[in-house]
Design goal:
This protein starts with a helix and ends in a 6-residue tail after the last helix. The longest helix has 31 residues, at 5-35. The chain has helices at 5-35, 38-50, 52-66, 74-85, 88-103. By secondary structure, it is an all-alpha fold.
Length: 109
């Protein structure tokens, strides 16, 4: 099975996006250690978490070069689904917590 051009482009762009998001998220996380504000920690984790729907495509792209037949197994497809979509509710909830804490801090009781 050959890797088609569209699959190659999609996988490589997924990998690039995930790597950039991890670097940006870790940069924001490093601000937590400098300023000791917990919002930086949460926003850094959220930034990395935003890229998780693309993470499974990046992992599949990397694994394709080592074992192309592994990608089509049912177990790997299940793992890709779990990696890609289970963190979305957690990240969304964290974002709502941080956003409301930053935006509506003055109106909080």
């Amino acid at each position: 099975m050959a890797l088609e051009l569209t699959e190659f482009l999609q996988g490589s762009f997924n990998l690039i996006f995930v790597l950039i998001s991890i670097v940006v998220g870790l940069t924001i996380l490093s601000r937590y250690f400098k300023y000791k504000k917990f919002h930086f920690f949460l926003v850094g984790v959220i930034w990395i978490g935003i890229s998780t729907p693309w993470l499974h495509g990046a992992i599949a792209f990397i694994i394709y070069f080592f074992d192309p037949l592994l990608i089509e197994t049912a177990g790997f497809i299940t793992i890709r689904f779990i990696i890609g979509y289970t963190s979305i509710p957690i990240i969304t909830t964290l974002w709502f917590v941080v956003f409301t804490d930053l935006k509506y801090n003055k109106t909080k009781r």
